[in-house]
Amino acid sequence: MSRDQESSKLLAVVVLLAAAGAAAFFFLGRAATDVAPQAVVSVEPGDPLPTRAPGPEDEMVEPARRPEGAPTSVVWPLEVDCSFLSSDAFERAEGMLAVGSGASASLVGSIYSATGKPEEGATVTFLAGANQGRVLVCDSTGAYGASDLYGGLSILSIETPSGSVAEREVRLRELTEARVSVGFGSPGAVYGKVKDREGNPIEGAQVRIDGKESLTDHEGIFHVPYVASGSALTIVEKEGYALYREILPVTHDFVLTPDKVTFVLHPAARLSLSVAENIGAREPALVYLLPGGGQRVNDVMGQRTFPWHRINPVEVFPGGTTVVDGLPAGRVDIFLFHSGGTASPPQSSVRLAAGQERAEVLHLAPTGQIHGRVVRDGVGVAGAQVRLEAPNRTAATLTAIGRTSTVLQSAVLPHLPPALQEVQADSKGRFVFTAYPGTKGYYLSATSPDGKWSGTDVVRPDVENLELSLSPIAAEQGDLVLSMKGRYQGLPVKLRVRGTPRDLFELSAEEDLLVAGLERGTWRVRVLWNGDELERGALVKIGAEPASLELGLPEGAVHGQTEFERTRSGY
């Protein structure tokens, strides 16, 4: 080996030794300062092998148990949704659906004040439609909801404790969730004009936008301030003209001007309705009018332009006449309902002309009746509230008018008499209902005037006389317990019952989740955590004894989140 070769070899060895020393110094120094002690991972026989050894990014593989009362490190709440399916108040009859079938549409949303804060205590009231009279209340976060609603087009009135109001339309569909949220901060304003089809201004027209009203001046101009952004329900009316409806989009802090907002009214048609036969019932007949075709549609937005819910139902006393004004031109379908009778024929149709009146005589044919008596200890209960309900109200309504479910998405309809009848018992506890053809049976219920006694029964079409006995109302509620093993710190919980949100709360360590006060019957329970579905939809029977459901929680819901995860999530 030459001298040069020996020198080169010696130099290479020195370089390698220096590099090794530097690497050792680097790693030893880093271990002393930056690297946490490596956790020992034990693997039991049959357990899957870990994919990698824990590293610096694992702030804590399994945190030590936190002292009792210490803040939880679990960031995301456990979301529990309990949906009501059917009640045990009625014993389900053979060959019939459970009572309340079809009430599976959901509505959720949030209401915010003018300052952007959640409007706790704000109410969302169903003004018209299949859920008319239902009131939903916002929780402390401004959220509201329900999951047991009937499908169809509905009108909502939104009111806050501070006095803000809004009116919106919503389309509800079975097994589908709709959302309506309203914020009253940075409202828009609407300046508009109302004119006739010749272009002349209409003075004195009443314009209602989002629950606020204004009258047009001599130039047909109106002004509605402070309109919450979103799709505002608008209705315009003036004697001699057909009612006009439109959904008006309103933007935050934006002023709509008459060149952008102009409503054109057309001459009204009039319909004179008479019922020829008097079959003995003292209450008026109920007439429902629905569009049959040829009605005006908003050319720009493709919207229907007539608010049918404003005229339905029309009350007509047998032997008398009622005139309905403000109708649109086109074909109108007529449906007549009266206690103890059915329309003959079941449906009538007329074609209305703008500016003209049309007279229509309706006819009734006697039909079967359901006579009964509400008693308590053999004595008639005067003034008892009695209800006769089809198992699926929506299906019964559609059968009565011979339409498909699409009509419910374009016209605001309540439950018609073949779907729901309610009366008050007379001084001897007696009541009478109409037995409409085409049904397999009804569910009958009654409640005493003081609300302390009740009774239920199943009514078949061939039953004509029955006696419904009341008994004391017992505690018809039950509890659900969700057990979650292995927890040692607090767990935030977001609970919804029948779609109605309850305030966020924290479940203490090792505590089971108790959902109390559920109506006895069948419920569907869905559970999520941080987007992961822990329970897709377990069916649970709520009865006298608490029902239980065991949940397996993911590690993140037990051990909590790292400081990095908490910071990233905004907590």
Q: What does the model show?
A:
The chain is mainly β and 571 residues long. It has five domains: 92-183, Immunoglobulin-like (Sandwich), CATH 2.60.40; 188-265, Immunoglobulin-like; 268-367, Immunoglobulin-like (Sandwich), CATH 2.60.40.10; 369-475, Carboxypeptidase-like, regulatory domain (Immunoglobulin-like, Sandwich), CATH 2.60.40; 476-569, Immunoglobulins (Immunoglobulin-like, Sandwich). Helices cover 9% and strands 44% of the residues. It is built from four helices and 43 strands. Strands 1, 37, 38, 39, 41 and 42 form a six-stranded mixed beta sheet that branches. Strands 19, 20, 22, 23, 24 and 26 form a six-stranded antiparallel beta sheet that branches. The radius of gyration is 34 Å and the shape is flat. Mean pLDDT is 87; it is low at 1-67.
Q: What tags apply to this protein structure?
A:
flat, 5 domains, 4 helices, Immunoglobulin-like, mainly beta, disordered N terminus, 571 residues, six-stranded mixed sheet
Number of strands: 43
CATH class of the largest domain: Mainly Beta
Helical segment count? 4
Overall number of structural domains: 5
User: What is the 3D shape?
Assistant: flat
| CATH topology grouping of the largest domain | Immunoglobulin-like
Work out the strand percent: 35-45%
Structural class: mainly beta
Q: Assign a percent range to the helix content.
A: under 10%
Gap from first CA to last CA: 71 Å
Rounded mean pLDDT is 87
CATH superfamily of the largest domain: Carboxypeptidase-like, regulatory domain
Low-confidence stretches: 1-67
Secondary-structure arrangement, i.e. CATH architecture of the largest domain: Sandwich
Largest sheet: 6 strands, mixed
Computed over alpha carbons, the radius of gyration is 34 Å
